[in-house]
Amino acid sequence: MTVRDPQLLKGILPTLVLALLRREESYGYELVTRLQAGGLTDVATGTVYPILTRLEREGSITSRLVPSASGPARKYYAPTTAGTARLTQGLEAWHDLIDVVDTLTGEP
After folding, report:
1. How many independent structural domains does the chain possess?
2. For a 10 Å CB count at each end of the chain, is N or C smaller?
3. Cβ contact 55:63 at 8 Å
4. Tens digits of per-residue pLDDT, 51-86?
5. Strand ordering across the sheet containing 26-27
6. Residue 29 host element (H or E)
7. Neighbour-count burial of 72, counting CB atoms closer than 10 A to its CB (0-12 exposed, 13-18 middle, 19+ buried)
8. Helix (H, G, I), strand (E, B), or coil: what is residue 67?
9. From CA 73, how far away is CA 69, in angstroms rounded?
């Protein structure tokens, strides 16, 4: 398991959540497992749910309740038009930051 700087992850995690939701709507726990399967093994549910709440409050995602045969209804999330725009901006900002870091560290 790779230990990651929590501050770096905190900055990019909303963008990663939006990227996953753009591919396929998901409920919270499923998003956590998708992030973990993608290599962020140290991401916990307690990190993702507040991001979902904030993104929904800001209008970047929308939600709907779907009945579940294995328990209570699940809240599925999907990006809004504003969320898709935010994803694009977040990815551009991340790539710009990578360019600056590469320039300052002398990395190709």
Report:
1. 1
2. C
3. no
4. 999 999 999 999 999 998 888 999 999 999 999 999
5. 26-27, 71-79, 61-68
6. helix 28-37
7. exposed
8. strand
9. 8
Whether 1 is covered by a domain: the verdict is no
The amino acid at 54: R
Range of the domain at 53: 6-105
Specify whether the backbone of 26 is left (phi greater than 0), alpha (psi in -120 to 50) or beta: beta
What pLDDT is recorded for position 107?
Answer: 76
Contact 76/26 with Cβ under 8 angstroms? yes
CATH number for the domain that contains residue 73:
1.10.10.10
Neighbours of 86 (CB within 10 A): 20
Indicate whether this model's pTM tops 0.85.
Answer: yes
Q: Which two tokens stand for residue 88?
A: 């694009």
17/83 Cα distance (integer angstroms):
10
Instruction: Name the packing angle between helices 28-37 and 45-57 (round to 10°).
Output: 120
**What CA–CA distance (Å, rounded) separates 38 from 89?**
22
